[in-house]
Write a structure and sequence with these properties.
Blueprint: E1 2-5, H1 13-29, E2 33-36, H2 43-51, E3 54-57, E4 67-70, H3 77-85, E5 89-92, H4 96-110, E6 115-118, H5 124-132, E7 137-140, E8 154-159, H6 165-175, E9 181-184, H7 190-205, E10 208-212, H8 218-230, E11 234-237, E12 253-258, H9 264-279
Parallel strand pairs: 1-12, 2-3, 2-4, 4-5, 6-7, 6-8, 8-9, 10-11, 10-12
This protein binds iron/sulfur cluster (SF4).
């Protein structure tokens, strides 16, 4: 059984940075270090951080004192202000590329452009961006939304960093028919694009594809969808334990990719399990 790993897969710069900050603070203070929601969308990494004294809570009311780490997707500014008012030390681990989307949205609004964000309305990154423009934003999840939305004649556009480029392009192209003035910032992160391209290339040439990552991770799910289109034998798994040996019957070439929030040790573990299955 041959195994090939996509040339670009696993932790991206922003996730690596956030996780490093969290582990460092957990080691240094050993208690009173918190994140609101998962620091990244990978339950295995969140589990490890918990062991390293970085605790995930969902409500700021439950944090009485200590340090609040702003996760890679960012947090709405009212939550950050509330944390500061409570006397918490706030450490910002927002990915700089996510920060850029927040900054563009603010600047478009200040310049008089109603802002349209291409993204998933319930994603934490989108929720944080909404907060930076006081909720004065139009969220477009798909090209079909354009018929239902009230699109003003002058518009500024940004995208959630992990959106699919083709979808972004289609929506922007369709917007040209609806507006008179359009200012567009392509804020899709390169790490996302290169991971999608390299996964697609690999999925086309293997018998079976594993996409490793959190099932709650938007970019991992998108990788899995992209691979499934060209390779129906695509499996999204969070860890090696989920591999069903029956999937590997009559398979000679396996491809592996991993979402931007998947650490190398989980990828190595999957490869190890596959090698063991192959030997036995
Ligand atoms: S995918 Fe891009 S925007 Fe998202 S955390 Fe990674 S580097 Fe930052």
């Amino acid at each position: 059984m041959e195994i090939e790993i996509a040339s670009k897969s696993g932790f991206c710069f922003g996730v690596q940075r956030a996780v490093d900050i969290a582990f460092k603070l957990g080691c240094k203070y050993s208690k009173g270090v918190y994140t609101l929601g998962p620091i990244i969308h990978n339950p295995k990494v969140v589990e490890q951080l918990e062991k390293a004294s970085v605790h995930m809570l969902n409500d700021i009311d439950n944090i009485k004192s200590g340090i609040l780490i702003v996760r890679s997707h960012g947090l709405p500014p009212n939550i950050i202000d509330e944390a500061k008012k409570k006397g918490l030390k706030v450490v910002d681990a927002t990915c700089p590329f996510v920060k850029k989307v927040q900054t563009y949205a603010i600047s478009l609004k200040e310049k008089g452009y109603p802002v349209l964000l291409i993204g998933d309305k319930n994603h934490p990154e989108v929720i944080a961006i909404r907060g930076y423009v006081n909720d004065e934003i139009i969220i477009c999840e798909s090209v079909n939304d354009l018929n239902k939305l009230d699109i003003p004649p002058k518009l500024g556009v940004v995208a959630q960093t992990t959106q699919d480029y083709e979808k972004f392009k289609t929506i922007v192209t369709n917007l040209l028919d609806c507006v008179r003035e359009l200012k567009v910032y392509n804020t899709i992160c390169d790490s996302t694009v290169v991971r999608q391209q390299s996964a697609l290339k690999l999925a086309k040439k293997v018998d079976l594809m594993f996409v490793i990552g959190g099932k709650n991770s938007a970019n991992t799910n998108r990788l899995s969808n992209i691979c499934s289109i060209v390779n129906p034998k695509t499996h999204l798994i969070e860890s090696s334990e989920e591999i069903d040996e029956k999937w590997l019957d009559s398979i000679s070439k396996i491809g592996i990719t991993a979402g931007a929030s998947t650490p190398k040790w989980i990828i190595d573990d999957v490869v190890e399990r596959l090698k063991n299955i192959s030997i036995n």
